Amino acid sequence: MQVKNTTKNHLETRILGKELAEGLSSKEEGVGAVIIGLEGDLGAGKTTFLQGFAEGLGVKDKILSPTFVIMNRFPLKKGPFKDFYHLDCYRIEREEDMAILEFKDIISGEGNIVCIEWPEKVKGYLPKGMIKVRFKILEGDNREINIEYGKQ
Ligand code: ADP
Ligand code: MG
Description:
The protein has three helices and seven strands; from the N terminus they run E-H-E-H-E-E-H-E-E-E. The protein is an alpha/beta fold and 152 residues long. The chain has one domain (2-148): Rossmann fold. Helix 1 (10-23) crosses helix 2 (46-57). The site of magnesium ion has 5 residues, from helix 2.
């Protein structure tokens, strides 16, 4: 299932992220993490979307656009998930670099919600059923944001 959206400013993108987080439920036990891949050019709004997403999960910390840090973990106090992971794989040059992050454990961990900017860089690690959010920069501050729910 694909849901198409257009936002006119960063706040609308944030709200869209928040709504996605609020509508998510955890998977059934034993089937691993819920994974969301965010695709789109630099400045398209992936991190902005995730700031709203984190708010929807109840995270109080500020979600930054990591320059050197590839992964951040936020423990969650409420809702169906235990930990929220935010990864930005822009700087990953070889997929094998993900080994040091113990990424396989993270995506197989029950109760984890994992959001990945630049998922195309680590394709080999990702399951087929992941949710995809695709960002396109339109005129001015407009953004097309399409959410595709994994085929399960
Ligand atoms: P990315 O993570 O995709 O590189 P960011 O979210 O870090 O992008 O940056 C998006 C930039 O574009 C921010 O400076 C934001 O204020 C601006 N912006 C303008 N219009 C929008 C919009 N409709 N949605 C999201 N961000 C927008
Ligand atoms: Mg970003």
